[in-house]
Amino acid sequence: ELLQESVALHEVVLPLSEAEDPLEVVRAGGVPQLAELRLHQGTTWRWNRPVYDPAGGGHLRIELRALPAGPSVIDMAANAAFLIGATLGLADEEWMIPAMPFELARRNFYRAARDGLGAELLWPARQAPSPRPMPAAEVVERLIPVARRGLDRAGVDADEAGALLDVMGERVTAEVTGARWQRAALAALEERMMR
Known about the structure:
195 residues, mainly alpha
């Protein structure tokens, strides 16, 4: 359904037509390439993007696109642990639903995208005044223990979760986000190479 929805809702940007007949490939016991669908999926932006990949006998997966690339695998795993853990940890905090209306979440999203850890976010509180202005770095620091609880409840090994969430804490202390790292890496390359 997610693939059908993506095709129905998003106009084709790069038309491609392959000679492959996917049903014929399946009837012959093969795995179809579905090149047109894969190209189309690569041109759409969805937070949770369904992906069909013919590699290794074919598989389907959901990419959580909110996770930016990091300078290392451990950074990307830390991003995932933090996001998933915080989501699981906040799932029982029903009081936050009315305290975080969509417009507030949207405002925070754009501020964080623009200013990173330097952003001032409006964050809900149980007592008035709510929401309260709070630096993004402080929001992350407050969410690390929430993420730890969420991962623990999901059965993630405590040492593994702790190591990944410690990476998040260290990055906040050092004021290094994936975007800052990427910009610094680009600037360093531009000093000695042409674009």
